[in-house]
Write a structure and sequence with these properties.
mainly alpha, 174 residues, 6 helices, 0% strand
Amino acid sequence: MGDNRSDFDHAIPMTDSTASQQEADLSGTATSSTGGNDVDAAGGSKVEEAKQALRDNAGKVGQQATEKARSFAEQGKDRAGGALDQLSQLLHDAAGQVDGKLGAQYGQYARQAATSVQGLSDQVRNKDVDELLDDARTFVRKSPAVAIGAAAALGFVMARLIQAGVDDQRGGQA
């Protein structure tokens, strides 16, 4: 046989148009003089283009996720600042009642607590998210036991608040 076609190729009659079509279909696919899996230049560049497109899209998605997380963190920071302001005001208002029921010394403790909470609120409002995260990391490294205790207490408070919200919703629907 003078041509390079296989026995299968001889079984299917080919016209010049079908041969041209098959060559066009095969451009950019694996070719080799030995029948191996080498990829020609066109196919290799297509694969590289696809890889680069995936990298670019992954980078864009990652950037969008980071921006969304930062946006949520900023909203959370604003809400936390507002909640701390409310807690500070609540403690300050309660200090007067504590004075009358338990004595001035305990009322002073409530005022000091209100002042401390207000200071924390101001810190939360005046720092950006990255600074707050750095502060939290530093605090946890310096005092891991206190951090675990604070996290447990915060978790308990959050669970109670969520449970109270769920109970309120159930009561409103009944």
